[in-house]
Amino acid sequence: MIRATRVIRRDALQTGEIVDRIVLDSGDRHRRRMAMKGVGGLAFLLDLPAATVLDDGDALALEDGRLVWVEAAAEPLLEVRAASPIALKRLIWHIGNRHIPAEIGEDAVYIGFDHVLADMVRGLGGTAEPVERPFRPEGGAYAGEAAGHHHHGHSHSHSHD
Predict the structure, then answer these.
(1) Pick from 42, 85, 87, 90: which is nearest to 64 by CA?
(2) Domains along the sequence of the chain with CATH
(3) Where is the UreE urease accessory N-terminal domain (predicted)?
(4) CA distances from 70 to 30, 47, 66, 135, 140 (A)
């Protein structure tokens, strides 16, 4: 099986024969090694030296020089907004306290669709509207590790001795 061994970032992509494309959600865009199949049927093995976050518009370079285009899939999300910047910061704090991936925009935060979190946001005075769009969650302080799968030594157990 042919391997894809290198990522070419969209801003560095100049020339090359794009032979297929893959459409991936945010979880599948963070990989190191995985068998993949393009929309056009090209089967290949993603075989990168380290786990890498692929973004919309990047390309995967196959061993023979051909390219596979990366497209970010639309995902069901909640668009969280608030009446003021300070109110949005408070909502971000509550969302972050739940350790869920979030994409922080200028005046909105995007999280995976979850009716419980939508109710929480609304209960705190914000809005939480369902949207479908590509999801680009923050890498966080542990960006060198798998996004959303890091271990940060924060325990949730509490002693009552």
Answers:
(1) 42
(2) 3-72 (2.60.260.20), 75-133 (3.30.70.790)
(3) 3-68
(4) 12, 15, 13, 14, 23
